[in-house]
Specification:
The protein is α/β, with parallel strands linked by helices. It has two domains: 312 residues, ABC transporter transmembrane region fold, CATH 1.20.1560; 187 residues, Rossmann fold (3-Layer(aba) Sandwich). The strands form two sheets. The protein has a six-stranded mixed β-sheet with strand order 6-7-8-3-9-10, sandwiched between helices. A four-stranded antiparallel β-sheet has the order 2-1-4-5, covered by helices on one side. Helix 20 links the parallel strand 7 and strand 8. The structure holds adenosine-5'-triphosphate (ATP). Pfam families: ABC_membrane (PF00664), ABC_tran (PF00005).
Length: 593
């Protein structure tokens, strides 16, 4: 029950509905038990003595009971429905909210399909159990208590005899639960794996098809599918083993009652009406007991679902606001960024060398910093740390002299806009994509940002212009067009800090050049970090930092760096190989010549 204790915060505020659902069902059950009693009365007091006067009254009583019972069932359905759906609603919101605050390190290893199945199938399991399953399980207990109490009022020795089999039945039911629970856990996990494989296949369909890997993907899926099937087969085995045993024991009590009760009716120590009533009541008790397996099944399924939800909800949030956060006032921020001897290793990858080691940087407000280096050298890590996607291992990062760990996260991230190499566009209009961070932006502002990002012209060529709906990943747009929309989105924010993480890589040199010209205008007075592989993107930076395996190996302005032997000059020479006049300083040419 620990899981349900953990989930209490989601259903306890609706305890009225919980009580209504349970009491409604319990009352309907108790009223149902009156029927066998009425039949007993009909046989013993009317049919056997041949008295018909009370017959209409008895029938009317039965109708009255039916009406009250139906009303109780309505209360059960109404309350159960409200309860289950409200709980599911709150859980869905809580999980989604949790997904918003979980740190980047969580998403480094999270699988989308698995998360999707938690937010859908698992919540559905909880909705069913808390809304209805729980009341039904309790109802079974009520039925046993009420039923045997009523049987006791008719004939207590016969009641005790049939009651003796209940502990046996309960023992089997508990064993059943212990056996079936692990199977359900594996089923849930295999559903998650299967969803992941379908989702990745769809997301990566271009890669799959271009590598002609359909067969390989099919094999992978078949493996997951076989695992899913085997889990269900294991479930069927447990069911097949326990079901007949539960049914046999449950019906054994009926057989015992018929045998002993029959003998007693023959010997006139029990009336026929009482035997019929007892048999009816026992049948009503045995029927849900027979379903006990199903109810336990339902319980274990939702327990497994609850465990997976609680696991998500209890995930620690490593990057959070400090106790007394400093909220930045947007108008007062200068944008002076400093890295003080920063070292960092990615969490959960302690075995790998540091992604950044003893990194120092002073980026005065309004400066342009270029970051250059081979792949995996730590360039993106620098900006991830600045946005507090991760916390530094050693050292500190300050914004206008304040350690960013002391700032309110949201207000810190609001100061910066980042454009990634892979631009993510939401499945909505181009207008909404550009206005993503500022939904209140005017049309003029959106067009202005698009113009600066060199996106306006191609947008206007689309039949629906800014109203064009782009797909989940900007289907139908080229990589360069997507990047330009992403740049417009960042520019619209007019951030104090602009980060371009290889964000012009998909653009041709000419477009990149034009964008840079516009950027220089827009970014005056704002601090800019440019990560690029192309020297042309960095050459105008106030400081260029060259990284290699997390270490700074060179730093300075373009003019200085091209004069020094090192990675920067190597890169420059390679990229400008066809224009030696532009790169070879005159003095050097003389020496080499
Ligand atoms: N989320 C992550 N989890 C674990 N290790 C990571 C993660 N991101 C990057 N790394 C590792 O940290 C190091 C620096 O990576 P980073 O992304 O900063 O390099 P980069 O210079 O931006 O590379 P590129 O130019 O290829 O984008 C690399 O060794 C990389 O494998």
């Amino acid at each position: 029950m620990n899981v349900f204790r953990g989930l209490k915060q989601f259903f306890w505020q609706d305890k009225g509905f919980l009580v209504g659902a349970v009491l409604g069902l319990a009352a309907a059950t108790a009223l149902g038990l009156v029927y066998p009693r009425l039949i007993g009365v009909l046989i013993d007091d009317m049919i056997v003595p041949g008295k018909y006067e009370g017959l209409v009254g008895l029938a009317l009583l039965a109708v009255g009971i039916v009406i009250i019972k139906a009303s109780c069932q309505y209360v059960h359905g109404f309350c159960g429905g409200r309860l289950g759906n409200r709980v599911a609603y709150r859980l869905r919101n809580a999980c989604y909210e949790k997904l918003q605050v979980l740190p980047f390190s969580f998403y480094d290893s999270a699988r989308t399909g698995d998360l999707m199945s938690r937010l859908t199938a698992d919540i559905e399991g909880i909705r069913n159990f808390i809304g209805f399953g729980f009341a039904q399980l309790l109802n079974t207990a009520f039925l046993v208590i009420f039923g045997f109490a009523m049987m006791g009022t008719i004939d207590w020795p016969l009641m005790l005899m049939t009651l003796a089999l209940i502990p046996v039945l309960s023992f089997i039911a508990i064993r059943f639960e212990l056996n079936i629970h692990p199977v359900f856990r594996s089923i849930r996990a295999s559903v998650g794996r299967l969803t992941v494989s379908v989702q990745e296949n769809i997301m990566g369909v271009r890669t799959v098809k271009s590598f002609a890997s359909e067969k390989h993907e099919m094999k992978k899926f078949e493996k997951g599918n076989a695992d899913y099937r085997d889990n269900y087969l294991a479930l069927a085995d447990v069911w097949a083993k326990y079901f007949p045993v539960i049914e046999f024991v449950a019906n054994l009590s009926v057989a015992l009652l018929l045998l002993v009760g029959g003998i007693r009716v023959i010997h006139h120590s029990l009336s026929l009406g009482d035997l019929v009533a007892l048999n009816g009541m026992l049948g009503m008790i045995v029927a849900p007991l027979w379903q006990l397996g199903f109810q336990i099944n339902n319980y274990t399924q939702s327990k497994a679902a609850g465990e997976r939800l609680m696991e998500l909800l209890n995930k620690p949030v490593s990057i959070r606001n400090p106790e007394h956060p400093l909220v930045l006032n947007d108008g007062d921020v200068q944008g002076h960024v400093k890295f003080h001897d920063v070292s960092f290793r990615y969490p959960n990858h302690e075995e790998l060398p540091s992604a950044l080691l003893g990194f120092d940087l002073d980026a005065p407000a309004g400066s342009v910093i270029g970051l250059l280096g081979g792949t995996g050298s730590g360039k993106s890590t620098v900006v991830q740390l600045l946005l507090r996607a991760y916390d530094v291992g050693e050292g500190a990062i300050t914004l206008d002299g304040v350690d960013i760990r002391h700032l309110e996260l949201e207000s810190l991230r609001r100061q910066a806009a980042i454009v990634f190499q892979e631009s993510f566009l939401f499945s909505t209009t181009i207008r909404e994509n550009i206005a993503y961070g500022r939904s209140e932006a005017t049309d003029e502002e959106i067009v202005e940002a698009a113009k600066l990002a060199q996106a306006h012209d191609f947008i206007m060529e689309l039949p629906l212009g800014y109203e064009t709906i782009v797909g989940e990943r900007g289907m139908g747009l080229s990589g360069g067009q997507k990047q330009r929309i992403a740049i417009a989105r960042a520019l619209l924010l007019k951030p104090k800090i602009l980060i371009l993480d290889d964000s012009t890589s998909a653009l041709d040199m000419e477009t990149e050049h034009v964008i840079q010209q516009s950027l220089r205008k827009v970014m005056a007075g704002r601090t800019t970090f440019v990560i690029a592989h192309r020297i042309s993107s960095l050459r105008h930076a106030d400081e260029i930092v060259v990284l290699d395996r997390g270490h700074v190996i060179q730093r300075g302005k373009h003019e200085q760096l091209v004069r020094q032997p090192g990675l920067y000059r190597e890169t420059y020479r390679t990229q400008y190989a066809d224009r030696p006049d532009e790169w070879e300083p005159a003095g050097e040419r003389r020496v080499s010549g």
